[in-house]
Amino acid sequence: MKKGNTVFFKNSPCITSFAAVCGSKEKEGVLGKFADITLDDDMYEESTFEKAECKMLSTAISLAIQKGGYSEKDIDVLFSGDLLNQIISASFAARDFNFPFLGLYSACSTMSESLLLGAMLVNAGCVNRVVAATGSHFASAERQYRYPLELGCTRPPQAQWTVTGAGGCVISSEKKGVKIVSGTMGKVCDFGVTDVNNMGAAMAPAVAIIGP
Amino acid sequence: MTGKTRDNYNENYLNYVKTQDPPTQHFKNCASAFGVGGLICCIGQFIRYMFEFAGLSGDELAGATSIVLIFLGCFLTGLGVYDRIGRYAGAGSIVPITGFANSVTSPAIEFKTEGWIYGMAAKMFTVAGAIIVFGVFSGVLVGLVYLFL
Q1: Strands A6-8, A2-3: pairing kind
Q2: CB-CB under 8 Å, B8 with A191
Q3: I need a labelling partner for B64 at 20 to 30 A (CA). Which of A117, A190, B5, B127 fits?
């Protein structure tokens, strides 16, 4: 059932298990204690930040599957994305698994989009279990969007930081865990914010404008 | 239609965003830029005196001083110290020649992971390229003016 831009799920797909990996800065924040794995080293024992991002995402996905007591055979499809060009870290993370992969790009709302689409598929009865996952890395995003890390430029006080972290959850048709009741599809709202350091201000109208 | 057009430009919202931004501390920023920038210049002057003492003069003296400062800028960037100075000093560490050295070295370090040729060498001037283009261009303009005067 759909009302406005919101889709209601009558078969109530459930989030049965979830996992998160986060970096050292995130660990100090209020959500740090909820992460399963926190990294002391943002390189995650890899040679580049992009590889670290990929490994975080892969770890989050396999941990989510493991924590729910599932095996790879139980998962029907993976919805995942990230912030890099050609959603490269999600594609490479998907290489580690033996189930189909559907890549998504929706910038900061990639996780909500993967949850929405995953829930839609499960609700429709097309599949039984979906993994929805997303990852990003401060250093790799910073390099792609802004300046090199070692460049001695100042950040304005309102500048926001891209999260170093990855998260994944299993959406299942089983009736346990957190129920997904509805999901709202978002519109793109551009109010003309051009400050590359203030992405929050650019994105906020999209949340405020769409009603349920 | 993309970008800032009359259709999407919401002045009320942009003004509201501006009021929510924490205020920039102009006085503090200027003071630290002045302090650090001045200190870099003092170090430069000290190096210059030392070279003068060693017997260099004219263009050689200016060249040798710049080389040492550029080396220091690159070296501190490699150690990961220069961006910390930059965060505190702002324009104070960007404007002197060490800032230019930093803007060349930092992408070189960052893109080294993509290989020596297609990564480091190709991306080395992503930040400094604009400075070089407009530097050369204004040099030509000033040269032309100088020619006809």
Answers
A1: antiparallel
A2: yes
A3: B127
Find, among A91, A81, A59, A87, the residue nearest to A132 by Cα: A81
Q: Which domain holds residue A154?
A: 2-209
In a domain, B16, yes or no: no
CA dihedral B103, B109, B112, B118 (to 10 degrees): 10
CATH number of the domain where residue A27 is located: 3.40.47.40
CB A104 within 8 A of CB A148: no
How many domains is chain B partitioned into structurally?
1
Question: H or E segment at B28?
Answer: helix B26-54
* Strands A37-38 and A77-81, sheet pairing: unpaired
| Average pLDDT of adjacent 10-residue blocks, chain A of 212 residues | 89 94 91 92 89 95 95 94 93 94 93 95 95 94 85 82 93 94 88 84 81 52
Residues of chain A contacting residue B111, judged by C-beta atoms under 8 Å apart: 148
**Domain-embedded: residue B4:** no
| Residue-range definition of the domain harbouring residue B68 | 25-148
- Nearest C-alpha of chain B: how many angstroms from A84? 15
Instruction: Judge whether B65 is closer than 8 Å to chain A, CB to CB.
Output: no
Please tell me the distance from the alpha carbon of residue B134 to that of residue B124, in angstroms, as a whole number: 17
Interface predicted TM-score (ipTM): 0.78
Phi, psi values for residue A103, rounded to 5°? -85, 140
Domains: count for chain A: 1
